[in-house]
Amino acid sequence: MSLYRVAQEALANAVKHSGCSRIDLRLTLDEPQFVTLSVADNGCGIADALVVKQDGRGVGMSAMRERMALIGGSISIRSGPGQGTVAVARAPISGPAKELA
Predict the structure, then answer these.
(1) How many angstroms separate the CA atoms of 62 and 69, rounded?
(2) How many CA atoms lie within 13 A of 32 on its CB side?
(3) Do residues 82 and 44 touch, judged by C-beta distance below 8 A?
(4) d(CA 37, CA 26)
(5) Which of 36, 29, 46 is closest to 85 using CA atoms?
(6) Are 77 and 52 spatial neighbours (Cβ–Cβ below 8 Å)?
(7) Can you tell me the distance from the alpha carbon of 35 to that of 54, in angstroms, rounded to the nearest whole number?
(8) Rounded to 5°, angle at Cα 92 from 91 and 93
(9) Can you list the positions of beta strands (E) in 1-101?
(10) CA torsion, points 66, 52, 19, 85, in degrees to nearest 10?
(11) Considering the entire predicted model, what is its pTM?
């Protein structure tokens, strides 16, 4: 469920803020125990992916980081003005899903 929420937030950010014409979403099985979600857009990019503004904007990125940390995962966000944005979340697989992998 955590990767689903991260995907939702990354897609919403791209649609709402980037002005992109393309979004690529990829879900891959890295190893038998990890899954990686990548969301990349070709939009305007952001100057600082770590900033949480006083007006509440930017909270979505912090929420993605917190969500991944809670499940023992990680997320990296690469971006720059005019360069688009790439969010890559990596999470451990546990329980029945791990058996399917």
Answers:
(1) 11
(2) 6
(3) yes
(4) 6
(5) 46
(6) no
(7) 33
(8) 115
(9) 23-31, 34-41, 74-79, 85-92
(10) -50
(11) 0.80
Interval 49-91: pLDDT, tens = 444 454 545 567 888 999 999 999 999 999 988 899 999 999 9
How many residues are listed for the chain in this entry?
101
Task: Compute the Cα dihedral for 15, 17, 21, 22 and give only its sign.
Answer: negative
Tokens 């900033």 belong to which residue?
51
Among the residues of the chain, which ranges form H helices? 2-13, 59-70, 96-100
Residue 33 tokens read as: 């125990």
Judge contact between 28 and 36, C-beta under 8 A. yes
